[in-house]
Amino acid sequence: MGGLASQGQLRMSFVRWALVTVPALLFLGFLSGKLANSGYDNGWFVALKQPDIMPPGWVFGVVWSLLYILMGLALAMILHARGAKGRGTALSLFFLQLFLNLAWSPLFFAWHEVSMAFVLILLILALSIATCFAFAAIRKAAAWLLVPYLVWLCFAAILNYQVDRLNPDAETLVPNRVHTHVAL
User: CB–CB of 112/170 below 8 Å?
Assistant: First the structure.
């Protein structure tokens, strides 16, 4: 049994990788957003002046789910390409940009660091572009799967920039809280 793998065996190897990477990325993205209290349920975020191009809340859930699925498939392709030249670098770039991606929601929504979140998203974008090129050298299809992510990162960076511009005091803004006074 020292022969080459058949096409069916190779396909199944990719499918096994995808069955791990896609749910893992979806879970990590969901967890990051949930722990950071991201979205329109966040009182601080709702209190901010929103740019005119801000989409409704449901769009973010749909788009990020699709992007994490595409990213998971791209990652599975690269993981499947054992022995490919540049695979280690491509995977390192991918996991670095993913780590920073997952750090963005807490930085923005939990710690209210809008300006730092903008700098972070620019770094994520630069690393994602590098990842895309590294993936292209191994599997062009994997790189193409990252293109929607790059486009969305550009849009998200524009939103982040506009929120920062419209809310120069965002870091210190505290949403109105309900206070209960008990008279004695």
Answer: yes
